[in-house]
Design brief:
alpha+beta; 13% strand; 3-stranded antiparallel beta sheet; 50% helix
Length: 679
């Protein structure tokens, strides 16, 4: 037997005794996930498994706290994880277009960068000083004096050989020049041409023979000059090494436990020696040249350290929430700068992305934002599959780049990626993207409701404590807590459930805090909560008020008394974005001559949605199974209901049941003798 539903049973009322506290000040903040046991287990599993491909997709309705809950959960776990190393890009002395990677313990990248700057500054002072010193000048003069003496002796031998054959020798940039000497006087060109052809031919032949004799001596002279330059170069090298020895020894000793860094420092030491002219002539070049200083300073960039992932203050594994996952923000990029009208770049202009900052930890991205650019989505999947972060320009990747750019060496990728989205997005990706299934093997499904029991009620109250502390809001008294719990139950649309859409409930708390602040109240009370809920409703229920006004003014007719054949009142739930409300509707049905089957008026004029059309078809199926098992239901025949049900075409028993069914559908007694069945 159906019992009458009393008004007090229409909604759940929270007992204040369940709270066991006068305000949220007496409650402890939450340190666990509330109302999401399924999602909690999935996240815990996904975070602990180390195998590749076990990235996580957190799916669920909006405002269920997927992002906030996941971040809080991750931060609690990340604190216990080891801090990943710093990652740097340095100059590749073998191929400047492929900058090398450098891995450092956490915090050491920043120190190394500063140490390298100090090394360059100190070297730019120490090297010119030692080369301007008297000791260097004396040793240099000694080497030059020795070389000059040997050169002069060699030239004298060559001159003596030439004189014995009647020639004088001159050294030119192209080699040896021999001039015929006659009677102690070098012949000019005119004098040589005035000689007989036999004499000219004789002297020419003799000159070539003399040149052949001088070639070995000339080679010795050039070898001597080469040896002198080599000796000076080795001396300058030794002097440079001596000048920076104390600087390099200090750094090598500081980083002696890090082989990768010491190898980089030795490469820097070798390049400083090779690039000696830049260090020696820097100050004089600035005075003599009108070039832009920035161009001059760029020559020392090869000694810089570009730290793109600094974990000096991480204190555990990093947790990065990328709010704007564009190609550059997520994957990194190479910047360019203009110098004298030309775009240039180098490894110091490489900028890391969220993948670099989250490497060794956790990266959170909203799925709908990631999918706005499929180039980003494809690149992210590629890096997850290869296990390496590769920075490359998008035009270069797509084949549209016309200017050569850098191709930095890839950095090993080791992170856990968490995508946050709704269930539809997950199902779409799972169905149409095979790579998605391989990369996101863990689904954390967030429910929109949780059981309304004592434990969850207490946890919900603790959630308000956490919210008040994190956002510096006023604390809530017991009356406010109970009213918010009742509001949560109403959002869940079930007295045995509480809503897990914490974002919606938190918005009410924030608004109630505003009203409590206006009243200068110590706590947020039930009055402030009621005012917040009513104000929110008032801001959104304009359409509801307009419909109510139309009904009161008889613009829309709704009968509330009496009985009408084939007509009942129904309730339509209208959703206008952030507000839903019920609106009365008139539902009519009629039967008459026409084509076979039911006629859905809304569908015929393309005004009915899929839910309405489905409902009408369900009714049609029910009527067919009930009254037309032997033959198709035909409502085009004339059906006359007499008081004694005579004159009806077809089986009288079935007609009687149809009469009863229509009466039950309409909720009134059908007394019309003839009608048409329309929806």
């Amino acid at each position: 037997m159906v019992a009458e539903l009393p008004a007090e049973k229409l909604r759940w009322t929270c007992d204040p005794k369940i709270i066991a506290a006068k305000s949220t000040e007496e409650l402890k903040p939450l340190d666990v996930m509330v109302g999401q046991p399924r999602a909690y287990q999935a996240l815990l599993f996904g975070f602990q498994v180390k195998e590749p491909g076990f990235n996580i997709f957190a799916a669920g309705p909006p405002a269920t706290g997927k992002a906030a809950t996941t971040i809080d959960f991750l931060e609690s776990i990340a604190k216990k994880k080891p801090t990943p190393p710093d990652w740097c890009y340095v100059h590749n002395f073998e191929d400047e277009y492929q900058p090398s990677t450098l891995s450092c313990p956490p915090g050491l990248g920043r120190q190394l960068k500063q140490d390298m700057r100090e090394l360059v500054q100190a070297s730019r002072i120490a090297i010119p000083q030692i080369f301007d010193g008297e000791d260097y000048a004396a040793k240099r003069d000694q080497i030059l004096k020795k070389t000059t003496q040997q050169r002069q002796e060699n030239i004298a031998k060559m001159g003596h050989v030439a004189e014995e054959e009647g020639f004088t020798m001159q050294l030119t940039a192209t080699g040896i020049s021999l001039v015929l000497v006659k009677k102690g006087h070098p012949l000019s060109e005119e004098e040589f041409l005035s000689l007989s052809k036999d004499d000219q031919q004789k002297f020419t032949q003799t000159r070539e023979e003399v040149k052949e004799k001088l070639i070995p001596l000339l080679r010795q002279l050039r070898d001597l000059e080469t040896q002198a330059r080599k000796e000076m170069s080795e001396f300058d090298r030794d002097v440079t090494l001596y000048a920076i020895d104390h600087l390099m020894s200090k750094l090598l000793d500081k980083y002696k436990e890090h082989a990768e860094i010491t190898s980089f420092l030795r490469a820097i030491q070798s390049h400083i020696v090779e690039d000696l002219d830049r260090f020696r002539g820097q100050e004089s070049e600035k005075k003599e040249s009108n070039r832009d200083d920035s161009l001059d300073e760029s020559g020392f960039r090869v000694y810089e350290v570009n730290v793109i992932a600094d974990n000096s203050g991480a204190g555990g594994a990093p947790v990065v929430f990328e709010q704007n996952p564009t190609y550059d923000n997520l994957l990194g990029h190479v910047e360019k700068e203009s110098q004298q009208g030309t775009l240039t770049t180098d490894f110091t202009l490489i900028k890391g992305g969220s993948l670099h900052r989250a490497n060794g930890g956790y990266l959170i991205i909203r799925a709908e934002q990631l999918l706005r650019d499929l180039n980003v989505y494809d690149a992210l999947k590629r890096m997850l599959k290869t296990g390496a972060i590769t920075i490359e320009d998008l035009p270069q990747r797509t084949g549209y780049a016309s200017v050569r750019s850098l191709s930095p060496r890839p950095i090993p990728l080791d992170l856990k990626l968490i995508l946050i989205g709704d269930s539809n997005t997950y199902q779409t990706l799972f169905s149409y993207d095979p790579e998605f299934r391989e990369l996101f093997k863990v689904k954390a499904d967030f429910d929109y409701t949780m059981d309304n029991n004592e434990k969850n009620v207490h946890d919900y109250a603790c959630f308000f404590t956490t919210l008040a502390l994190n956002e510096k809001l006023k604390h809530l008294d017991t009356s406010a807590i109970t009213r918010l719990l009742e509001h949560s139950s109403r959002l869940a649309e079930d007295q045995d459930k509480l809503s897990t859409q914490f974002g919606l409930v938190a918005n009410v708390v924030r608004e109630a805090h505003f009203y409590a602040t206006q009243d200068d109240s110590k706590y947020i009370t039930v009055d402030h909560v009621e005012k917040a809920i009513e104000a929110k409703t008032y801001r959104s229920n304009l359409i509801q008020e307009k419909l109510r006004e139309y009904i009161e003014r008889n613009v829309i007719f709704i009968s509330t008394e009496g009985a009408v054949v084939g007509q009942i009142n129904g309730l339509s739930v209208l959703n206008v974005g952030d507000f839903s409300f019920g609106a009365p509707s008139r539902i009519t049905v009629a039967v008459g001559l026409g084509k076979e089957g039911l006629v859905d008026v809304q569908r015929e004029v393309n005004m009915g949605g899929p839910i309405h059309g489905k409902g009408v078809m369900i009714i049609a199926g029910y009527l067919t199974s009930k009254f037309a098992r032997d033959k198709p239901l035909t409502l085009s025949a004339r059906i006359v209901f007499e008081q004694n049900y005579e004159g009806v075409e077809g089986d009288s028993a079935s007609s009687t049941e149809l009469y009863a069914l229509l009466s039950s559908l309409s909720g009134v007694s059908i007394k019309q003798n003839f009608f048409t069945f329309y929806f």
